[in-house]
Structure formats: C-alpha cells, structure tokens
Write a structure and sequence with these properties.
The protein contains 12 helices and 11 strands. By secondary structure, it is an alpha/beta fold.
Length: about 325
C-alpha cells in the first residue's frame, strides 16, 4: 500500500509538473490564420500600388494565406491610415504607407482621426528615395550654388512648380528659401504631369522630380539636375550633390514606403512580418525587378529602427510645415 501511495503521489507531481517543462507557444507560429489585408491610400496602378501588389504576391506564397491589397483612396491617405489604426491588432491588417502620412500630414491637419505616433506599430521601412531639383535648360545656372546666387540678385523672379501647398516640392523649396535667404516663387499645379510639363516648356524655372523619372530628360538636355533632396547621394545619379554637401543640411526631404500594423499588435508577429519582408527585399530577382529597376533603393529597417526614424522625421516635418506656412483644414 505504501508503495502504491508513493507511486500515486509521484504520478500526481509528474502530471502537474509537465506544463512547466512545455515550451511556450510562439505567437507568430500560428499566424496568419486568415487572409491578410494590405491597405494602401493610393489608387491602382500607381508606383507604390504596383510595389505593394508585387510584395503581396510573394508574401501570399510565403505565408500560405492570401495577402490582399486594399485601395482605400481619399483624403490624402487619411482614410486608409485610419482604417488600419482602428483594425484589430492581430497582424491580419497592415498599412502600406508613404512617409507623409506620419511626418507631414499630422502637422498640416490639426484634427486627425488617429495619432500618428501612438496608434501604430512600425514594422519595416521598405525603401527610401529622394528627389532631384531640376531646372529648365534655358535657366542660366549649372549648379545649385549658381541658382542661389542668381536668386539673390533678383528675388522672386525664379519660379518653381509643385502639386500644391503642403506637398513635398512646396515644403522643401520653402526650406531652401529660408536657409539660403532667397525667394523662389511658388506656382502650384493640379498634378505631377502638369508640374513637370511646366518646367519642360519654360513656363516655370524649377521643380523637384524623382531621380529615375528625371534621368531621360536630364540626359537629353531638356532639364538640368542641380541637387539631391536627401543627405546622401543616390546610386542612380551619383554625380549630383546633396544640399547637405552644399551647406544646407536642413534642406532634406526624402520619400519612403513602409509597412505598419495597428498598435498593440503582438511583437512576435511584427518581427515575423519584418523578417519575411526583409528576406523578400534581399532576393536578387525581386530586388532588381521591383525595386532597383524602378528607382527604389531598398532599406528593410527593423521595427525599432523604423520607429526611431518616424519619430525623428515627425519632428523635422513640424519644422518644414512651420517654415512653409502651409496649412490644410
């Protein structure tokens, strides 16, 4: 009887001890449990939409669940951004966004339906690229230094085009005005094609254009590249200096595409999504076909690095908007 008692007690202890030896399940291992929505605030066929769809196709195969690109167009991306902020934080709804939704829009619009810093869990920055300040071929300058010297001689005569108050072209041009002590006159247009066409025809003198799309006009001599908009030279046009090199480090405004999840999304899922996207960015075929061939320089920043970048650029965006005087109600 004593022996049986001892065996029974041992069995009870063994049964109760088993859970302590079992390894805690990985929260990311069972994910995704259903299709993943990749929400974007741009319409179909735009550059960022095409990149999002190329990623979605590869991730669908990788995750074993459909990754569906959902275009929620309107209000300068606010509709799409709010949709993700309000979604369940379970990793099944993600935002494919540009930088402006988190670094510029919060300073242009006083009452947003979300908090850009508190309502999201940054997952990864996919790519970053800048724009190049280009001049009409007839403008008698060959460099940004000559442009600034000419603008100081005749304030207000030199004009630049943008797609409206608060746009990247407007903000960075006004920062250049502020830091260089010049006056470039702003002429807004309804869209990028009209904005660029105005410079090509000589209707205005300057604008900012994506490096990759500007290269043909620069090579043909229709436009002149004066300076690059972020603090390091681009591999697509390494001969073009940055404004930081020219002594104007505050004239710095790039564009990035990134993926964010709703706040409180479990960290293991955030890290899993980042790792899988980073693996995709490192694939030579995807990297060349979907990124480098279209002028996108891949980055693949992790969650913590990406969050720190957003915080820095959020503060810099406040200064850009303040200097420009832009405001959207």
């Amino acid at each position: 009887m004593q022996r049986l008692f001892r065996l029974g007690v041992a069995a009870i202890f063994a049964a109760t001890a088993l859970p302590s030896f079992a390894q805690a399940p990985d929260a990311s291992s069972a994910w995704p449990l259903k299709p993943v929505r990749l929400v974007i605030g741009i319409g179909p066929a735009a550059g960022s939409d095409l990149l999002a769809r190329a990623m979605a196709q590869r991730l669908t195969a990788q995750w074993g669940q459909a990754v569906v690109v959902e275009n929620r167009v309107g209000a300068n991306g606010i509709i799409a951004t709010e949709a993700v902020a309000r979604a369940a934080p379970d990793g099944h709804t993600l935002l494919f966004s540009t930088d402006s939704a988190f670094t510029i829009t919060p300073h242009l619009i006083s009452k947003l339906p979300y908090d850009a810093l508190k309502d999201f869990a940054p997952v990864t920055q996919i790519t970053e690229f800048g724009t190049v300040l280009v001049a009409n071929a007839a403008l008698p300058v060959a460099s940004a230094g000559e442009l600034i010297a000419l603008a100081k001689k005749d304030p207000g005569r030199i004009t630049y085009s943008s797609i409206g108050a608060g746009s990247q072209m407007h903000l960075i041009s006004e920062m250049l005005n502020n830091k260089a002590g010049i006056t470039l006159s702003h002429i807004p247009y309804k869209g990028i094609p009209q904005m660029v066409s105005a410079v090509l025809t000589g209707e205005v003198n300057l604008t900012w254009v994506g490096v990759f799309s500007a290269r043909p006009q620069i090579k043909s001599g229709k436009l002149k590249a004066l300076a690059y908009s972020i603090g390091r030279r681009t591999s697509f046009m390494p001969e073009v200096p940055t404004f930081a090199e020219l002594g104007y480090p505050d004239v710095d405004k790039g564009v990035w595409y990134g993926v964010l999840a709703p706040a409180r999304t479990p960290r293991p899922q955030v890290e899993r999504i980042h790792a899988d996207i980073r693996r995709l960015l490192d694939e030579p075929e995807f990297r060349e076909k979907e990124l480098m061939s279209k002028g996108y320089e891949p980055t693949g920043l992790g969650p913590d690095e990406f969050a720190a970048l957003i915080r820095r650029q959020f503060a810099a965006g406040a200064n850009l908007v303040k200097v420009s005087g832009a405001q959207v109600e």
